[in-house]
Amino acid sequence: MIDNSKRNFFKRVKTPFSFLISPPYYEDKSRFVECYECETKACVEACEEKIIFIENEVPVLKFNNSGCSFCDECAVVCEKNVLDIEFKKSKLNCEIFINPKKCISWNQTICFACLDVCDVRAIKFKGMFNPIIDEEICTSCGMCVSVCPTNSLEILRKEENV
After folding, report:
1. Alpha carbons within 13 A on the beta-carbon side of 121
2. pLDDT tens by residue, 21-64
3. Which helix (H) or strand (E) holds 60?
């Protein structure tokens, strides 16, 4: 029996990699299966920010200590051409937002840690307090995540149509 409900019609097709934050140099996430055969994992070593980690045999980004500088190095060294400069994206496959309950600026303490590291100036302040992220400008690089003293910057992974 075929389920023709509207809900199922609008469901997105998921791949095993749709929940991962990936380096910004891929054409199709389904190609990440080719990373299983990569023995060197050169992308990890090439990353100047040291934010590429291998999970389930594929490269993923974690913003614990820094963010993506879009330096191209992981794509340059990718032996399988899964990561390729030709497919460089201007935004990572996630969104970053500020949790006002955790943010000290939203709670009347002056802090510009996230603003200071944002190269594209996507973080805007309403006066001295209340920072917001301009989603149209933000590249989701994650630089702000690692410097936040209260971990108030949270990541929402985008599910992509693959």
Report:
1. 0
2. 999 999 998 999 999 999 999 999 999 999 999 999 999 999 99
3. strand 58-61
In the predicted structure, residue 79 carries a pLDDT above the cut 80: yes
* Block residue for tokens 């994206």: 89
| Res 12 pLDDT > 50 | no
Determine the topology of domain 94-157 in CATH.
Alpha-Beta Plaits (3.30.70)
DSSP state of 132: E
Q: Which residues contact 90 (CB under 8 A, 6 or more apart)?
A: 24, 139
Q: In angstroms, rounded to a whole number, what is the distance separating the alpha carbons of residues 37 and 116? A: 40
3-state secondary structure of 97: strand
Q: Find the mean pLDDT for residues 55-74.
A: 95
Half-sphere exposure of 35 toward its Cβ, with a 13 Å CA cutoff?
27
Residue 154 φ then ψ, to 5°: -115, 155
pLDDT (average), residues 90-117: 95
d(CA 50, CA 31) in angstroms, rounded, equals 23
- Residue spans of the domains in the chain: they are 94-157
Quick one: tokens of 148?
């936040």
